[in-house]
Amino acid sequence: MNEELKPCPFCGRAVDRDLSDTLYPNGTYWIDEPRGRHYHSRKNRTRHSQPCWTMHCTECNGGCGAEISADTEEEVRAKWNCRASPALIGLPVIDPDLLDTSKEAGK
Ligand SMILES: [Zn+2]
């Protein structure tokens, strides 16, 4: 059903199999209203409120403590699994052919 979680995007540590400390509703809730999405605390939730989720690289298990939050579990999983491409973050993209030394030897 859910896509498998990749290692932490910051430190590379594998995600714990027991997700109870790693992936959880974080206590903030949201509801869509005519003027847009409204966020509120657990105290003010209604039966229409939806929980926000956090994915956490737990320090107590050797992780780096990084957290990513989103409005749904599916969204936080997708954010956690997202990896920046060099072009997206403005780094030069290296042509893989330049790294292939076997072609060099054939010249
Ligand atoms: Zn980490």
Report the C-alpha radius of gyration, rounded: 20 Å
Classification by helices and strands: alpha+beta
On the 0 to 100 scale, the average pLDDT is 88
With helices defined by DSSP (H or I, 4 residues minimum), what is the helix count?
3
Q: Please, how many domains?
A: 1
- Assembly state: single chain
Strand content: 25-35%
- Roughly how many Å apart are the termini? 50 Å
Overall morphology: elongated
Order of helices and strands: EEEEHHH
- How much helicity do the residues have? 10-25%
Give the biggest sheet. Answer: 4 strands, antiparallel
Which molecules are bound in this entry?
A: zinc ion
Poorly predicted regions: none
Structure description:
This protein has 107 residues and is of the alpha+beta class. It has helices spanning 73-81, 96-99, 101-106; strands spanning 23-33, 36-41, 50-56, 67-70. The N and C termini lie far apart (50 Å). The mean pLDDT is 88. Residues 8, 10-11, 13, 57, 63-64, 66 line the site of zinc ion (ZN).
Task: Tag the structure with descriptive keywords.
107 residues, alpha+beta, four-stranded antiparallel sheet, 3 helices, 4 strands, 26% strand, binds zinc ion
Topology:
Layout: E1 23-33, E2 36-41, E3 50-56, E4 67-70, H1 73-81, H2 96-99, H3 101-106
Antiparallel strand pairs: 1-2, 1-3, 3-4
Bound molecules: zinc ion.
What's this, in brief?
The chain has about 110 residues and is of the alpha+beta class. The chain has three helices and four strands, in the order ββββααα.
